[in-house]
Every structure is written in structure tokens, then in C-alpha cells.
Protein 1
Amino acid sequence: MRGHAHLIAGYVPGTSWLHRSPLWLKAVLLLIVTVLCFATGDVYVTTAVLAAVVVLHFVAGLPPGRLWRPVRLMLVFLLLIGAYQYWQSGPLTAWRVVAGILAAVLASNALTATTTVAALLDGLVKAVRPLRRFGADPERFALTVSLMLRSIPFIIGAFDDVRDAARARGLERNLRARTLPVLIGTVAYARATGEALAARGLGDAEDRRVGGAGD
């Protein structure tokens, strides 16, 4: 299915300075963008930050499609937010809010497009590691996120494939024909994933602890 072919916010190979920058620096830059856009409340600052983020995409050598795709996906939402803010507070506030959202989303997009999934997961492990003293398992947390990154695109691809197949058979309005194959495929995918994890010994420690507690 097409969902297998990509990951959410897929990595774009490159050799730019942003690609080579450590994850912590990219996270700091994302935080700065967010704070400048939503804490200052200045429309000129927000506009300047948005322009800088757009320029950053081109400097990093990212394809134009990576810049437009998140905007396209959020277009209806942005129009509704902008219209409401225009009605409530006028055009400057409407633009400041919409530009701030765009800047934050595009900055996140730049981070994920220039950082491999492995590096992102390693960063998550390091971020969660201080919580180990409270019983958290950083490695399992990263594994959960990794499974999510693979499962969501699979389900999206399943919906796309089933929709196309239903349309080809003239069943595009048949709810059962458009949902039942997706449910079956998703359950099969989940079972296969669980079996793969069990084959690698993941979950055995928990099973032994539960079994020992029951004894």
C-alpha cells in the first residue's frame, strides 16, 4: 500500500548546514521561532520570522513541495482562523495569527526534513532519559513513537488504496466497501507488527513480571 512508501514528515537527504546541525540546535531554533511568533504579539516580528523560515527552507535545499505541502493541508483551517481573527480584531491581528501558525509549522517541517528518523528517536531517548528514575523506559518510548510513525502512514495509504479500488468498481458511495478492507488490513498489520516484536523478545520482561506477580 502507498502508506508503506513514506513516513510522516519524511527526511530529505542533503548536505546543508541545517542538515549537519545537531538536533538540539534545531530544537532551540524551533523554540525561538515559536516564542517570537506567539509571545511578542508584534505583527512585524512575526512576518520577519515567517520570511526567515521560508528562506531557511531554500537555503537548506529543500524542494518547494516540502514548503507548500503543510500549507495546503492546513489551508482551510488557516482561512477559518484568519476570517475569525479579521472579524474580531482586524486584518493585522488576522495576519499575525496566521503567519505565526505558518512559521511554527514550517519550522517544524524544516527540522523533520533535515533530521533522520533515527536521529529524532535518539533525541527522544535522551530527552526522556531523566524520567527513568520515575519508572519511564526511554527505549520503549522511542519504539512506540517509531511504530506510530510507521503505522499512521500505513493507515492513510490503506484508505487511499481502498478508495481507489472502490471507485474503480463503482462503489465509491458504499461505506462498507470503503471501510471494511481498511479495518481488516489494519488489524493484520497490527498482528504482524506484534508478532515481529515478540520474535525479537520485546515484551518478555513485562510478561515475566506479570507472571511472577500472579504467582
Note: The two ends are 45 Å apart (CA to CA).
Protein 2
Amino acid sequence: MFLRVALLVLRKDFAIEVRSREILYTTLFFALSCVLIFSFAFVKAEGQPLEDAAAGILWIAIAFAGTLALGRTFERERYGETLRALLLAPAPRPAIYVGKLVGIVFLLVVAEALLVPLIALLFQAALFTHPLLLIGLLLTGTVGFCAVGTLFAAMLVRARTRDVMLPILLYPITVPVIIAGVRGTSALLQPAPDEAVATMWIALLVCFDVVFVTLALWTFEPLMTE
């Protein structure tokens, strides 16, 4: 029952997005705009980009695009009282959370698939030297960021100041995730890539994911009931 409900919520969001492509296009445009603006800002006097800035810019773009996607996803649920209907359905509330979480993670993974090659090109960064470690960093960091963001976005869906409150609540808690992602990616971009350090940061991100997802599953129902 739990898995079936989560898949139904995911399929609903996927079907709506396939028809409208509203959130996907908005998120991609915003993320690519951030990268392009930073690519002009972080340029040396000789006209060469700053290679050390690539890791930070990648994760800043992911965080900004993720915040936009979270807000727009639950803004859609507010129309027609869709979220209220989901909560009134005879289904496990945490399963609704998992379905929304997987959908947002998938959306950000699509954005990252475009961001990584673009940043590698604009900043001449060796992001494809260790692809498996990079994928591990991006996936674990994205899950940790979205685990907290999905909970807060659902909690604030009825608040008038949700667009302001979401970043205020989200960023202080997800700062460790962003820092771990940046440090792990930076380790891979060194002249002599440090695989051990990158693996250590991936392990730390996995710990963050377990804690954040567990707490979100535990608190989703009481928060939404309130």
C-alpha cells in the first residue's frame, strides 16, 4: 500500500508535468541563467575562468533551482485543494511525502544533467574525470536537500508568505549538505583528485540523507495535520 500510494502520487505529478512542462522549463532556465551570470562574474584579468569556482557555482545553481522547483510544485497543489484531497484520501501520509520527494529529486537530476556539462565547458573544470564519484555526490546531496525542502514546502503551502519563508527555513538546515557537496566536488577538481576525501563527503551526505528522510517521514503527518 505504501509503495503503491507513493507511485500514484509520482505518476500524477509526472503526468501533469509532461503536459505542461511548466516547472521543468522554469527550473532549467533559472539554473542555466545562474551559471551563465556566474561565468561572466568569475573571470580572471586574462579572460580565463576561475576553475576553483566551478564546484561552488554548481551547488549554488542546484540549491536555487531546487528552491524554485519546490515552491512551484506545491503551488500547483494549492489550486483546486489537491493537497487537501491527498491528505483526506485513505492512504499513508508518509507515502504522499515520498512520492513528492521522488518527483522533485528526478526533476533536479534532469537539471543537473544539463548543468554539469555546461559548467565543465564554461569553467574548464574536469568534472568528468571521476564520473561515479560525481554522480554519488550529486545524488546524495540532491536527496538531502529535497528531503528537507519537500517537508517545508508542503508545510508552508497554505501560508501567505510561503515564497519568503521557504528559503528562510530551508537554507540554514541544508547548509551542511551544500558544504559537503561543494567540498566533495572541489576534491575531485584538484590537479591531483583526492578520491578518498570525495568518498568521505559522500558517506557524510548519506548520513545526512538518512537523518533528514527519517525525520521528515516521522514529522510529515503531524505537521500536515496541524
Note: Residues 78 and 84 are 8 Å apart (CA to CA).
